[in-house]
Amino acid sequence: MARRILVAIVCLVAVLSAAAQQDSIAMRYAGLITEEGLREHLSVLASDAYEGREVGSRGEKMATAYIMEQFKGYGIPPIAGAESKGLLPDGYRQEFPVVLARNGGIRMTVNGKPYRFLKDYFYFRETLPADLKVAEVMLVSGLTAGGMRLGGGGKVTLLWEEGDKDPPAPFLDLATLGKMVKGTGVEVLLVVEPSAAGLMERYGPMMEQGRMRLGGTDQGTKVEDGPQVMVITPELAEAIVAGSGLKKKKALKEAANKRVILKVPVSFTGKGVEEQLTGQNVLAYVEGGDKKDEIVVVTAHLDHVGVQDGEVYNGADDDGSGTVAVMGMAEAFAKAKADGHGPRRSMLFMAVSGEEKGLFGSRWYTDHPVFPLDSTVADLNIDMIGRVDSTHDGRDRYVYVIGSFRLSRELGDIVEMQNERYTKLALDYTYDAEDDPNRFYYRSDHYNFAKHGIPVAFFFNGVHEDYHGPYDEVDKIRFDLLRERTLLVYYTAWELANRDRRPAVNGD
Ligand SMILES: [Zn+2]
Fold first, then answer.
1. Average pLDDT across the chain, whole number
2. Closest Cα partner for 423 from 474, 495, 351?
3. DSSP track, 294-333
């Protein structure tokens, strides 16, 4: 009996000391982050009206306007001196240039007869440096282990492998083919593919979509040189051979042993159209107190992949979940500040855009920081925290934490400490392994902070069957888990904002 009482007392002491470590003020404002609130915002942002929030699109602008209005509603003032800091005059939004290079600009003629993109030929990358007219085409048949049997290539080279049993050439990787002929004098490589017509029918819209890159940088432009690789139908290849006056069978037979020159005029003119778009990050700055020059950043990406084949990709989990989490935390910190419990360090809650196309918004922010990167003590990034992956069936109170120890072990410890005190989720470090093949550490916005040496922690629920699919919808979100995971980030942010020392960077 006495022993029982002793055990009970020990337990009570343990509970009391854990409670003593909890910060009742932090908990009070955590109460503002509710399932209902998260649901309300997500039901707006991930609705069809927002058209999948693709960077540069109308839906993205609707989303940034909505988020900004909420920030204002929380009483968060605009950032002072907005324009001198590279923000829009509203003081909340940071705009960045996006270049959309559409495919399909190259027009091809054989013997003066025009052929058409997505009917007779296709390509994924437009790399033709200038218009090109030639009087002859070199015919080669076959790749060898060491590369193409070219010696010196013709400016326009026709690669025609008859009776090829390999998988369709386009998915052999056109970029690799391009590399193989680079430096051989080839400017256009035409690859004959028996299934080209079917591929174009099936993947035409994707081939036409084009590629985005962040403007104002060389990102994405470096790979855009090298020979133009085009996949053509056998019919077009036959027209080229026939145009030279040779018979197909004979030409191919000769090409098996040597390079065959086809005397036929062929031209390539034009380029894809480049469209100039803009993306927007939305910033809510809650100024700190005695340590206000130091900044804690909390990020999530507001953009998703837009509309494809007439279907809106709502991106409720990816990353509507992170976006509404950031909004909820902004509201809680703003209300705390209004009540006289503001953070010691400044907080920057930022919904970034263009993540899906290559982390554009976070790259732009860290290249054009509104607050000095030297004074940025950490970035807590959220990308998908509203679902459960298949490996956690039945054990759903978890979150993957990635990168939290890499640059600052102290930051990793703080995440664990706050989880222990408040949220008690299972922290899963599976994807934190340096050699993790998914490379998630490099695949979301925290990476742009980490590469500048800023400690980061990335919160993630893992992938699921609706990842980047049209059914990533609000009704599949687990708002209970979304709230709990948000609270882990919130309590981590609260600690980072208020402790005496910023987390030490490893090795310092
Ligand atoms: Zn994402």
1. 90
2. 495
3. EEEEEEEE--B--EETTEE---IIIIIIHHHHHHHHHHHH
Using CA atoms, how far residue 188 sits from 194, 252, 496, in Å, is: 19, 19, 55
Strand 156-159, strand 132-140: pairing: parallel
* Residue-wise pLDDT tens digits, 369-381: 999 999 999 999 9
Write the CB contacts of 86 (distance below 8 Å, at least 6 apart in sequence): 94, 368, 370
Fold of 22-98+276-498: Aminopeptidase (3.40.630)
Domain boundaries, the chain: 22-98+276-498, 107-272
- Quickly tell me which residue has 């490099």 as its tokens: 442
Task: Kindly give the distance from the C-alpha atom of residue 319 to the centroid of ligand 1, in angstroms, as a whole number.
Answer: 5
Predicted confidence (pLDDT) per residue in 185-234, tens digit = 889 999 999 889 999 998 888 788 778 999 986 554 444 567 899 999 99
Mean per-residue pLDDT for 55-78? 98
Query: Which residue would you say has higher pLDDT here, 199 or 342?
Result: 342
The total number of residues shown for the chain amounts to 508
Question: How many whole angstroms from 469 Cα to the centroid of ligand 1?
Answer: 12
User: Which residues are paired to 458 by β-bridges?
Assistant: 381, 402
Measured in angstroms, how far is the CA atom of residue 75 from the centroid of ligand 1? 28
Alpha helical stretches, state H, 99-165 = none
Which residues hold their Cβ within 5 A of ligand 1, which is an ion? 318-319, 383
* Cα 331 to ligand 1 centroid, rounded to whole Å: 22
Residue 143 CB neighbour total at 10 angstroms: 17
Q: 78 CA distance to ligand 1 centroid (A)?
A: 27
Distance CA 501, CA 105 (A): 56
Q: How far apart are CA 433 and CA 436, in angstroms?
A: 5
Q: How far is the CA of 354 from the centre of ligand 1 (A)?
A: 10
Query: 49-53 — which CB contacts under 8 Å span 24+ positions?
Result: 50/314, 51/306, 51/307, 51/312, 52/304, 52/305, 52/306, 52/307, 52/308, 52/312, 52/313, 52/314, 52/315, 53/302, 53/303, 53/304, 53/306, 53/315
Closest CA to 452 of 295, 282, 321, 302: 295
Q: Are 432 and 402 in contact (CB under 8 A)?
A: yes
Give residue 334 CA to ligand 1 midpoint distance, Å: 26
CATH code of the region 107-272: 3.50.30
- Give residue 209 CA to ligand 1 midpoint distance, Å: 20
Query: Residue 355 Cα, ligand 1 centroid: separation in angstroms?
Result: 7
Ligand 1 centre distance from Cα of residue 318 (Å): 5
